Amino acid sequence: MDTLQMVLGLIIWFIGELYVLAILLRFILQLIKADFYNPISQAVVKVTNPPLVPLRRFIPSMGGADTASLVLALLVQIVLVYLISLIGGISPVSLNVGMVIVAAIAGLFSILLNFYVFAGIIIVIASFIAPGSYSPALMMLNQLFEPMCRRIRQVIPPLGGLDFSIMVVFLGIYILKLITVGTLRNIAMADYGLRFFLGYV
User: Fold this and answer.
1) The model's pTM
2) 123: pLDDT confidence band, cut at 50, 70 and 90?
3) Which residues contact 96 (CB under 8 A, 6 or more apart)?
4) What is the b/e burial string over 132-143, where b = at least 16 CB atoms within 10 angstroms of the residue's CB?
């Protein structure tokens, strides 16, 4: 494996993961009924609309959830698995399709959970540095985090003015990542050709 392959794989992985994240955010923002007038939300809608609008003609929403967004995220992630594996010198036809899907799902969980970790860190830092400040990005992050924190506060209320809910969320994310990404990654590792892609997960 030469340096050029690794750099090219990293570039494609980075661009692909950003787009998959935008699709997943589109799904979550709609699920939690977030403010779609937020400039960040509008940007997410704009970049995901081109493939998503035609896909919705074939995949309707289910139970208020934008199923088409999940399907699109998985399809893009599968394409990403094949592209990165190809860069790693692995022929796409040699890959087990079932293992490719498993690797793609592991990638989706990894993207989403890593995003929530970074989002939580930004929220915590902002609460210390600039409490009460407003920015579209921070508002969106709070909308994404608040549903989970609110449920935790019902069980563990703030003590002495300290809110431990976000710490519990961090712990839950870490455990969930071990269970989901770790397990799926180990399953997909059975296909040797996927190991180059899994190195990025």
Assistant:
1) 0.88
2) confident
3) 191
4) eeeeeebbbbbb
